[in-house]
Write a structure and sequence with these properties.
With 94 residues, this protein is mostly helical. Helix content is 77%, strand content 0%.
């Protein structure tokens, strides 16, 4: 089976800038900054969703076992709060 090609961030960014330059007057740097802002926002959305999914899974696991529910609540609340901070841009995505 042949591996499917997946373009990297720089290739997608360059294609976006080229396409936008053909349609709009803004400079390449302005379009590149636009793309970078979009990508950062998308990264925050993905990170926040991953944390919320982890919180849901952790909470379900503790409920299924009927033990450590207080501990699970603290952990899942922390994960959800971290997701909120990331989504608002108040926390870095690592």
């Amino acid at each position: 089976m042949v591996d499917e090609y997946t373009p990297g961030r720089d290739k997608v960014r360059d294609a976006y800038v080229r396409g936008m330059r053909q349609a709009f007057i803004a400079s390449a740097a302005e379009h590149a900054d636009e793309f970078d802002r979009w990508l950062a926002a998308r990264d925050r959305e993905v990170a926040a969703k991953a944390l919320r999914d982890a919180a849901d899974e952790a909470q379900q696991g503790f409920v299924d076992e009927q033990q450590g529910i207080g501990f699970a609540r603290v952990r899942t609340d922390w994960l959800r709060a971290r997701a909120d901070r990331i989504e608002k841009g108040a926390g870095d995505v690592r």
